[in-house]
Structure formats: structure tokens, C-alpha cells
């Protein structure tokens, strides 16, 4: 059996396992998680072989085989001893310690191969701190824990590697990865792209607006900024460059638009499910709280692109390159997507588990896909597309499973040592119980801690360490978690470690630094929106209907005024006066008073009325 066939077979096996457990319900907690981790780790070592293409690859093959055996043995040990682990407090033996060390190192090695060195180093620091923190002076000192106690925490219970994060990855997140992969592979991906082209193509800056819309639609399903840039960017970035858009601008548009997929429901880079588990609130509450901010984000990017397009006279997409509406709204395109979303919605409405609701969505998708493609595609072709979706889903679960298993180890060490509480107390002490100052400090630390990390791992880290600092000064828990999640997320477009920009710049064939500058400008509103969670609870649909209206008005003012300011829109004959007007409107909008958002909206409307009459745009 060739490596490629083995990879394909393992990926399909992972996808089939997730489909089966979503349909019938998961196994007992530790059993489900152990089987899932064994499967994704085995697939991971097959997908990311050590030393591939190098002369010492045979040595790497031996290492991979050894690590795979260790993972399978460790997971099998937990499954075999499930009853004892859950009903007693087992003491760690030498075998337990060896299996724990081997399993953790295997997971971290896979983490290194898939997302880089930063994440596994952080986990190792966490474990090292638990073992040797008693040697540190000052507030970082703790009483110390021996290797047996750390082993019991990580391996022999449901607080360590088999904890909540791994559980969410093995059930809910895996089911949604399967849902998204099948949706994209059965025609949803092309449908999203065609719809984006039709909606944005004939407007000023049409190619950039296509990138914004398409990346938003893809991102809602994939939830990964880097993967989104690599997928849609390979189409949208060359199109923008072909139409004469500056290369840094093309890279930045795609990077920022793809980042929005991480904060857009329903998946939010898998963080929505993790957040619901951490806060102990329904998944639907997270989704409702994230809707308005996500809409404001994409509206702000769209407006910035529009203003820049007017100023730079960016080209529209030629009619001959745009798909016909008849093709876009054809039943074979629309019905599978509607059936998938309908099945998902019905499952949630009936009160089923989120993974079961995802299964309903998959069933609806597959039934509609077969019904609409029958007679057009052969059974073999349809089966091939579905199997490809299963394969892609299995591969997508590797990174999620490995990252969340490693993140669970880190979180367990943070909770064991109490370092999260210690750091939160230090932040509150530094800020003097001032909510604005705590928010600013937390925002800066989140940007730093999120650099180089995937969305979900970054959120888990900042949620464990920084969210408590905000709740300690009276911030609503949901607002605190959305706040840290946003700043951890936008670290992917924030220099110096802006991985989404790196990928976009690579596709555009340009230097990443000017692209990063464009990205910060395009995503400027995203740095402001999290603070609106603190000023306007209605932003998360909390409170009365007036609170929601007030928050929406304030958000609309910002997503128009800030892009206009940064794009250099001309409102009067004086550039200085234009800046003064827009800055004043922004200041009024964020001033916490029930009337100020409406005053700001009226002032902004008057300013644009003046601008439309003068008919001037800065060249």
C-alpha cells in the first residue's frame, strides 16, 4: 500500500468515525476521546512524515512508526482501564508515567509539524512550570508537583489530555468539520464563489469585494484564516492583480476578509463550541452574541474597499467573467445548501445535541445533493465527491484534534498551578480595578499571545489566563470571552507575526510588510469592535431591544466613519476639517450614553450629504 492510499484510507476512516458517532451518539467520554485522538494522530503521522524528501527519511519513518505505536498503546490503555480511571483515584505507576510522556511528546511533535514550534513550546513551558515552579521566586512561585501527580492530572482522569477541549474536538467540532467539508465538496464552494462574483463584481473595486464576500462565506464554514487565504486567495488575489490592483492591497484584502471567517458564526474557528463549554451556556447564545459584531466586521471591510476603490479608481470585473444568475440560483446549486442549513436548524430547534444537529445537516445535504444531481452525474461520480469530502474532513480534523489535545494539557497545568489567577490578579492590580485600563492591557497581551497560534489554540490560552482578569473587574463573562477571542484572532493580521498576511503576500508575490500595513488599515474597525462589547451590551443582543438598536447604530457609525477616515474620503474643501469631522463623529459614537450614537449618526449623515454635494474624492 502506497503512502497516499494509506493517507486516504485513514482520512476516510476518521471521517466515517465522526459520522457514525454523530448519528448514534458518542461513546463514553474518555473512550470517545481516546479513539478520536488515536485515529487523528495516526493519520497525522501519515500526512506529515518526518524527513519527507530528505536522505534520512527512513529514520523519520522509524520515528513516526514508534510514535504512532506509543499513541495507540496510550489510548488503548485508557480505553481498557476506563472503569478504573473513572471510579477510583489511580496512583501513577512507572508505566503510566512513560505512556503520559510518550503521548504528550507525540501530540506536541504533531503540533510542531502542523502549526510550528510556538505552540508545543508553550505546552512544554506549562508542564515544566508545574514540575519546577516551586523553584521560582515571587508571585510565580507555587508549592510544586511531582511527576506522579502531574501524570495523574494529565493522563489518569478527565481534567488533562482527556478533558473538555479534547471532548469538544472529538464530537461537536469534528461533526462541523465533516459538515463543512461535505458542503464544500458537493458544490457549495463553487456556489459561494459564483454568488460572491455576481454580488460584488460590477461595483467599484469589484475584485476586492468578491474576495471579501467569498472569504466571508467560506470562512463561516471553514473557520480558518490561513486555510481560507490559501483556498479563496488563489483565485481572488490573481484576479485583483490582473485588474491592476496593487499587490500589497490584494494580499491584505484577502487576509483580512479571511480573518473575519474566524469571528463569523456558526463555527468561528471552532471557538464557538469551546466558548460554550467553558462558559457553560448554550451554543446558540454564543452565536447570537457574535452575529452583530461579525456583520459589522464585514461591512467595515466592504466600506473600506469601497472608499479605497473610489479614491484609486480600481477597476470593476468585466461582465464576461461573471457567472449568470440562472446558474447561481439553479436548484442543483441552491437546494443542497438550503437542505444542509435547514437540517442543522431543525436539529437545534428540536433541542438535539449540536453534533446530532450537524448530522441532520449532513443528511439533508446528501439527500438533496443526490436528488438534484441524479441523471446529471453518475452514481460513481457522486460517490467520489462524497468520499473526497470525507477524506478532506478527516485531514482537517488532524490539526484541530492535535491542537486541542495539546491545549487541554496546557489548560490543565494552568489550572493546577493557579498561574491564570495569579496573572489576572497582577493585571487587575496594575490597572487599579479600572475596566478601560484592564481592557487595554488585556488587548495588548492577547495580540502578543495569539501571534503564531491558530485561532482556537490562541483563544483557549487567552481565555484561561486573561478572561478572568476582565470578569474580576465586573465585565460580563460572555463579553470578556468575546473580547479576548477577537484580539487573539486578529493577531493573524497584526505585525510582526501576521501569518494570514504572510500567506496572502506569498500568493501576491509581494513583500509582507506593506501588505501588513494595508491589512491593519482594512481591519481597523476590528480593533475597536471588542471595546463596544464593554460599552454596549446590546452588541451581543443582551438587554432590551433599545440596547440592541443603540449598539447597532453605534457600530454602523464606526464602520462607516473609520474606513472613510483611513481611506481619505473628501467631505469638504479642507482635508483637516474632514479629519476633524470624522474623528469627532467617532468620539461621539463611542461615548457611553443612550443618545450619543444617534447624534453621531445624524452628524455623519450630514457630513456625507455635504460630501455628495461637493462631489470630491481625494486623488
How would the blueprint of this fold be written?
Elements: H1 3-24, H2 29-47, H3 57-80, H4 82-87, H5 94-115, H6 118-132, H7 147-154, H8 164-200, H9 206-222, H10 225-242, H11 247-260, H12 271-279, H13 283-312, H14 325-328, H15 331-349, H16 354-373, H17 379-417, H18 419-431, H19 435-450, H20 455-465, H21 467-472, H22 477-489, H23 499-508, H24 512-522, H25 529-535, H26 545-567, H27 575-589, H28 596-614
Main pleated-sheet profile: none
- Following the backbone from N to C, one meets helices and strands in this order, namely HHHHHHHHHHHHHHHHHHHHHHHHHHHH
Radius of gyration: 25 Å
Low-confidence stretches: 615-619
Principal-axis shape: globular
Count the E strands.
Answer: 0
Amino acid at each position: 500500500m502506497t503512502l497516499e492510499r494509506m493517507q486516504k484510507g485513514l482520512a476516510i476512516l476518521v471521517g466515517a468515525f465522526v459520522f457514525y458517532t454523530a448519528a448514534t451518539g458518542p461513546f463514553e467520554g474518555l473512550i470517545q476521546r481516546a479513539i478520536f485522538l488515536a485515529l487523528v494522530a495516526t493519520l497525522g503521522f501519515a500526512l506529515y512524515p518526518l524527513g519527507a524528501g530528505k536522505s534520512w527519511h527512513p529514520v523519520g519513518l522509524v520515528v513516526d512508526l514508534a510514535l504512532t505505536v506509543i499513541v495507540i498503546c496510550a489510548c488503548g490503555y485508557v480505553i481498557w482501564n476506563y472503569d478504573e480511571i473513572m471510579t477510583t483515584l489511580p496512583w501513577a505507576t512507572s508505566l503510566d508515567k512513560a505512556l503520559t510522556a510518550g503521548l504528550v511528546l507525540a501530540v506536541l511533535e504533531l503540533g510542531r509539524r502542523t502549526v510550528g514550534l510556538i505552540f508545543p513550546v508553550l505546552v512544554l513551558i506549562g508542564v515544566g512550570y508545574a514540575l519546577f515552579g516551586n523553584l521560582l521566586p515571587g508571585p510565580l512561585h507555587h508549592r510544586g508537583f511531582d511527576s506522579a501527580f502531574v501524570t495523574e492530572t494529565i493522563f489518569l482522569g478527565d481534567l488533562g489530555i482527556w478533558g473538555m477541549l479534547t471532548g469538544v474536538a472529538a464530537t461537536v467540532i469534528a461533526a462541523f468539520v465533516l459538515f463543512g467539508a461535505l458542503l464544500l465538496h458537493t458544490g457549495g464552494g463553487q456556489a459561494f464563489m459564483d454568488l460572491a462574483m455576481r454580488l460584488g463584481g460590477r461595483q467599484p473595486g469589484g475584485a476586492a469585494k468578491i474576495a471579501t464576500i467569498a472569504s466571508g462565506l467560506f470562512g463561516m464554514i471553514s473557520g480558518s484564516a490561513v486555510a481560507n487565504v490559501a483556498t479563496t486567495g488563489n483565485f481572488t488575489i490573481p484576479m485583483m492583480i490582473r485588474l491592476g490592483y496593487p499587490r500589497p492591497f490584494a494580499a491584505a484584502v484577502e487576509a483580512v476578509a479571511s480573518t473575519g471567517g474566524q469571528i463569523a458564526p456558526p463555527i468561528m474557528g471552532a471557538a464557538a463550541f469551546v466558548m460554550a463549554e467553558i462558559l457553560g451556556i448554550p451554543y446558540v447564545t454564543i452565536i447570537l452574541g457574535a452575529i452583530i459584531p461579525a456583520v459589522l466586521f464585514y461591512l467595515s471591510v466592504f466600506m473600506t474597499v469601497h472608499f479605497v476603490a473610489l479614491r484609486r479608481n480600481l477597476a470593476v470585473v468585466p461582465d464576461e467573467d461573471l457567472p449568470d444568475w440562472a446558474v447561481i440560483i439553479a436548484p442543483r446549486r441552491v437546494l443542497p445548501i438550503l437542505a444542509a442549513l435547514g437540517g442543522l436548524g431543525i436539529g437545534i430547534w428540536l433541542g438535539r445535541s449540536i453534533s446530532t444537529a450537524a448530522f441532520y445537516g449532513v443528511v439533508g445535504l446528501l439527500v438533496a445533493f443526490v436528488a438534484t444531481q441524479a441523471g446529471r452525474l453518475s452514481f460513481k461520480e457522486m460517490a467520489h465527491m462524497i468520499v473526497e469530502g470525507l477524506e478532506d474532513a478527516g485531514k482537517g480534523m488532524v490539526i484541530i484534534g492535535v491542537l486541542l489535545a495539546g491545549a487541554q494539557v496546557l489548560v490543565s497545568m494552568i489550572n493546577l498551578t493557579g498561574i491564570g489567577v495569579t496573572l489576572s490578579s497582577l493585571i487587575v492590580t496594575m490597572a487599579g480595578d479600572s475596566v478601560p485600563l484592564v481592557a487595554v492591557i488585556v488587548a495588548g497581551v492577547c495580540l502578543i499571545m495569539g501571534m503564531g497560534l491558530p485561532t482556537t489554540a490562541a483563544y483557549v490560552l487567552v481565555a484561561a489566563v486573561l478572561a478572568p482578569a476582565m470578569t474580576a473587574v465586573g465585565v460580563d463573562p460572555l463579553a470578556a470571552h468575546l473580547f479576548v477571542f477577537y484580539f487573539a484572532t486578529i493577531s493573524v493580521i497584526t505585525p510582526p507575526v501576521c501569518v494570514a498576511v504572510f500567506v496572502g503576500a506569498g500568493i501576491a508575490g509581494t513583500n509582507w510588510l506593506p501588505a501588513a500595513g494595508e491589512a491593519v488599515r482594512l481591519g481597523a474597525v476590528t480593533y475597536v469592535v471588542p471595546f463596544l462589547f464593554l460599552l454596549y451590551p446590546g452588541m451581543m443582543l443582551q438587554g432590551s431591544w433599545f440596547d440592541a438598536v443603540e449598539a447597532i447604530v453605534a457600530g454602523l457609525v464606526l464602520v462607516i466613519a473609520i474606513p472613510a477616515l483611513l481611506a481619505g474620503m473628501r467631505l469638504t474643501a479642507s482635508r483637516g476639517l474632514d479629519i476633524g469631522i470624522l474623528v469627532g463623529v467617532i468620539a461621539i459614537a463611542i461615548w457611553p450614553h443612550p443618545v450619543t450614537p444617534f447624534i453621531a449618526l445624524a452628524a455623519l449623515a450630514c457630513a456625507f450629504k455635504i460630501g455628495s454635494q461637493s462631489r470630491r474624492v481625494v486623488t
